[in-house]
UniProtKB/TrEMBL annotation:
SMART domains for the chain: HTH_GNTR
Entry similarity comment: In the C-terminal section; belongs to the class-I pyridoxal-phosphate-dependent aminotransferase family.
The HTH gntR-type domain, residue ranges: 10-78
PANTHER family per UniProt: HTH-TYPE TRANSCRIPTIONAL REGULATORY PROTEIN GABR, TRANSCRIPTIONAL REGULATORY PROTEIN
Keywords for this protein: Aminotransferase, DNA-binding, Pyridoxal phosphate, Transcription, Transcription regulation, Transferase
Protein name (Swiss-Prot/TrEMBL): HTH gntR-type domain-containing protein
Domain of life of the source: Bacteria
Keyword Lipoprotein tagged: no
SUPFAM superfamilies assigned to the protein according to its UniProt record, in alphabetical order: PLP-dependent transferases, Winged helix' DNA-binding domain
Length: 479
């Protein structure tokens, strides 16, 4: 039972880990079972005892086994999803230096005020595209009545309509006690970090990813590790190696119209990701804030494929703008309860008013018609983008736009520098270079929805000019 294949080309300690996990998954080792002693395992595997100790310590960190003095090593009987008590290391937080703002963003935000700039950086729809709806006139007394309907998990009518829409749109079945209303998707992420992780824990995310720019991970003391993507999504082999090497505790993905690339994970890759997460008993957080803006039939959500393995995050901010700051978490009831308790302890309460507004918007009779009109408008903008983009196709590569707000343009030639990206600001073109989302400098995120036809033409005229400059290096560089 305790023997390894000599043909594998991964470190021995990782082979030991994989074998023990396989035994647990196949039922050869059951919860509460004792493993042989370190000495016996080392003898069976014909390795040094330190190699066995390394493998067992990694399995402890991943939650597969428990090591108790006097009792030996046992298969863990628990599951992921920890205490609801939020963990904030205030002393450590206050002792940190305030992180410096990215110089590119400082300059970008300064010229963002200029009415002559073309803002393709902002991650929202332009105001004229946000679907309209009629908000009923509420008296203060009526709002107080609605406030009394408020529960720990949120405003029940809003919870119900979210459940109905998830089932209708994605085939995702959820009861209202599995839905926690939050003040946007970022608050939802923050709650998950506080409840499920501890300072020093590692999280796997896509590379590139907008998550790199969020301060909530640094605040929680959580380490982010990026996993390279291909045309199907996050690369599974690379993710598995990261899980074993960095003691990953959580996987966060944005599988539909990913931010910043706009890529959608294929069904095959979604199933592979779920299988890997089940192998290592790692929860997946599915950030699903763009699926309302789809042009084609989407693959099933991760949550619908693995209801108990996936935590689903949603938001209204991408379709209604940040003015309706409402998000939600869909998860097993036990985890939702722990998150709710943590939310109350941190006084993250949400007024009933924005929830009533969100409910009104989603139940408005014209909502579906308005949403379809929005999608038709976005398709038109996409077609305009395609037409104009031919002028720079020899310099920039981009994928098809099947929904969402973003298109990812990759430079085809020599390595770009930060100074090259400064040319965009000089031309008053506000874009999001790839170094905001990873260590890469060769691509940019563009919010194509924010351009009129005339502005689209202007963008590509300026982009062609910039491409000629950076391609020919026709400007002085600092040494």
């Amino acid at each position: 039972m305790w023997k390894l294949e000599s043909t594998k080309k991964i470190p021995v300690y990782q082979q030991i880990m994989e074998q023990i996990i396989e035994y647990i998954q196949k039922g050869q080792l059951n919860p509460g079972d004792h493993l042989p002693s370190e000495r016996k395992l080392a003898a069976s595997y014909q390795v040094n005892r330190s190699t066995v100790v390394h493998a067992l310590e990694e399995l402890v960190s991943l939650g597969w086994i428990i090591r108790q003095q006097g009792s030996g090593t046992l298969v863990n009987e628990g599951r992921w999803g920890r205490s609801a008590t939020p963990r904030m290391n205030w002393r450590q937080l206050l002792s940190r230096e305030t992180p410096q703002t990215e110089p590119y963003l400082l300059e970008l935000h300064e010229i963002q005020k200029d009415t002559q700039t073309l803002d393709l950086y902002t991650g929202e729809l332009p105001l004229d595209l946000i679907p309209d709806f009629r908000l009923p006139a509420y008296t203060w007394e009526e709002l107080l009545i609605e406030e009394k309907k408020q529960r720990d998990l949120g405003y029940p009518p809003l919870q119900r309509i979210i459940c109905e829409r998830l089932y209708r749109e994605q085939g995702l079945e959820a009861a209202t006690n599995q839905v926690l209303i939050t003040s946007g998707a970022q608050q939802a992420l923050f709650l998950l970090l506080q409840v499920m992780l501890e300072a020093g824990d590692s999280v796997a995310i896509e590379d590139p990813s907008f998550l790199y720019s969020l301060p909530i991970f640094d605040t929680a003391g959580v380490r982010l590790y990026g996993v390279a993507m291909d045309e199907e999504g996050m690369q599974i082999e690379a993710l598995e190696q990261l899980i074993l090497a960095k003691r990953v505790k959580l996987i966060i993905v944005n599988p539909t119209f990913q931010n910043p690339t706009g890529n959608t994970m294929t069904l095959k890759r979604r199933k592979q990701l779920i299988a890997l997460s089940e192998k290592y008993q790692l929860p997946i957080v599915e950030d699903d804030v763009f699926s309302e803006l789809n042009f084609l039939q989407l693959p099933p959500s991760l949550k619908s494929l693995a209801p108990h393995q996936v935590i689903h995050l949603g938001s209204l901010s991408k379709i209604f703008g940040s003015s309706i700051k409402i998000g939600w978490i869909v998860a097993d009831q036990s985890l939702i309860q722990r998150l709710s308790e943590a939310k109350q302890m941190m006084d993250f309460s949400i007024s009933v008013f924005p929830q009533v507004v969100a409910y009104t918007a989603l139940t408005d009779q014209s909502f579906e018609t308005n949403r379809q009109e929005l999608i038709d408008t976005l398709k038109h903008k996409r077609d305009c983008f395609y037409s104009c983009a031919q002028s720079v196709s020899s310099d920039w590569q981009f994928e098809e736009i099947d929904g969402g707000l973003y298109v990812w343009l990759k430079w085809r030639h020599q390595k770009l520098t930060r100074k090259d990206w400064g040319l965009f600001l000089q031309e008053k073109l506000l874009v999001a270079p790839s170094f905001l989302f990873s260590n890469d400098t060769m691509a940019m995120r563009v919010n194509y929805s924010r351009m009129t036809e005339e502005e689209c033409y202007i963008f590509f005229v300026k982009l062609q000019k910039i491409s000629e400059i950076i391609g020919g290096r026709k400007y002085e560089r600092d040494n």
